Each structure stands twice: as structure tokens, then as C-alpha cells.
Amino acid sequence: MTEDTATPLSALDRFEIFEQLVRHQRYIDNDPSRASADKYVGLYWPEASFTVNDLRSQTFTGPDELKNLYDYAHSVFPLEKWFHDVGWFEIDGEGDSADVLWRWRVSWKEDGEGVVSTGTYRDRFERRAGSWKVIERVSDVDPNWPAALFQPYVDRQAELFKTS
Questions:
Q1: What is the band of 99 on the pLDDT scale with cuts at 50, 70, 90?
Q2: Which of 20, 27, 66, 142 has the most Cβ atoms closer than 10 angstroms to its Cβ?
Q3: Using one digit for the tens of pLDDT, what is the confidence trace for 34-71?
Q4: Is there a contact between 119 and 103 (Cβ–Cβ < 8 Å)?
Q5: Under 8 Å between Cβ of 61 and 68
Q6: What string of H, E and C letters represents the secondary structure of the chain?
Q7: Which residues are bridge partners to 68 per DSSP?
């Protein structure tokens, strides 16, 4: 399809993509089980990549590495005490491709008050056989947020990390 004849995203396309953003935040709040990790990984195309830019800069590609990302988050950090929200978002695209910029926020639900962390995702979604999923995601911690607060968890990653 050429640019001149590309079909703009419909309201239904935009809603389906937004629903994927919400599922991402909901599924990351699931338990550390293998079933929950598989549900989370199912939000991505098999060759998808996820780049994390916080205290570390690392890219995870494919189902095994995305499961590793899920397992890392659930064993190194106290996710059972936090919850994730979708903030503002912008969805642009046409045809079977969309670029999404959106804000994430993590808040305390136990043992603390207020915001744990915040940042943005830059996503590329693709539609295949009628389904929208992430093909590329980049997570950037908010530059105004003191990322060093996570350092004690990262320092203990070797002893804390467990696979589902």
C-alpha cells in the first residue's frame, strides 16, 4: 500500500490498541506464575523486542527473553506491593501499523504511599490476521524520577531472581 492510498486507523483499531495498553499494565500486575508470564508474553509478536532504559539499558527479544523480563520484574522488585496505570497516550498510524507514545505510572498499593516510578513507552504495533500486538517497545524512566531508588533491588538481583 502506498502512502497515498494507506487507510487511516479506525476508531475500532485505536480502541483495540488502547485495550492492549491496558492489558499490558494489568498483566504485569499478575502473579509470578508461568501462566501469568505466558499471558504477558502473549501481548507481543514472537520476534518482538522490548528495550528497558532505567538503571540498566537492555533489550529483550523473543518469547524467552520477554518471559525473562517478566520473571525479573516479579522476583527482583516487590510487584505484589505495586500497581501499574496507563496515563496519557497518543496513537498514530495507518493500515496495519501504529506508533503509540504513552505514559506509565507505578504506585504503591501496600507498604507505601504515592508514586513508585513513572516514565513513557514508545511502541510500534502491527496488525496480523486481525490482531494488534507489540512488535517493538522502548521504556524510558521519567528523567525527573530518582531512578536510584531501585538500586537496592538491582544490587540484590543475583540472589532474588527466580524464573516462573
A1: very high
A2: 66
A3: 999 999 999 999 999 999 998 778 999 999 999 999 99
A4: yes
A5: no
A6: CCHHHCCECCHHHHHHHHHHHHHHHHHHCCCCCHHHHHHHHCCEEEEEEEEEECCCEEEEEHHHHHHHHHHHHHHHCCHHHEEEEEEEEEEEEECCEEEEEEEEEEEECCCCCCEEEEEEEEEEEEEECCEEEEEEEEEEECCCCCHHHHHHHHHCHHHHCCCC
A7: none
